[in-house]
Amino acid sequence: MQIEVLKSKIHKATITHADLNYIGSIAIDENLLEAANLIENEKVHIYNITNGERLETYIIKGERGSGIISLNGAAARKAAVGDKVIIISYAAMDFEQAKNFKPTILFPDDNNNLK
Fold first, then answer.
1. pLDDT tens readout for residues 70-111
2. Annotated catalytic, 89?
3. Which of 52, 64, 91, 94 is the most exposed place for a label (fewest CB within 10 A)?
């Protein structure tokens, strides 16, 4: 049996940009991507703590060290600059494997830097 479990979480990241005219996705600082065990084009769930919006999209690499968290395309309507969000990815795995799996969870500061 396969189940879905939390794989990666960036808790309380700050939206730095919202670009309605981009084709879609969320841009995430490459430092955060690596630390959170996330990769470009991976599907993520975005939970907006500020306004309660929830959405799914895919990741694009943001400039390393920039602190960027940018919702793009239609997703830009779901958040404003300064909103706090939770970014989550899940993984499917065998039930027994899942019992011992440890997700990667980050708590960046208000500028999206690693603490």
1. 999 999 999 999 999 999 999 999 999 999 999 999 999 999
2. no
3. 52
Helix count and strand count (H, E) for the chain = 2, 8
How many angstroms from the chain centroid is the CA of residue 50?
15
Say which of 8, 22, 58, 90 is annotated catalytic.
58
Q: Which among 101, 3, 8 has a CA at the least distance from the CA of 46?
A: 8
Beta strands 17-19 and 54-62, pairing class: unpaired
- As a whole number, mean pLDDT of residues 3-24 equals 95
Judged by DSSP in three states, 82 sits in coil
Domains along the sequence of the chain with CATH: 2-106 (2.40.40.20)
Catalytic residue among 25, 66, 70, 89: 25
CA pair distance 96, 71, nearest whole angstrom: 36
58 catalytic per annotation: yes
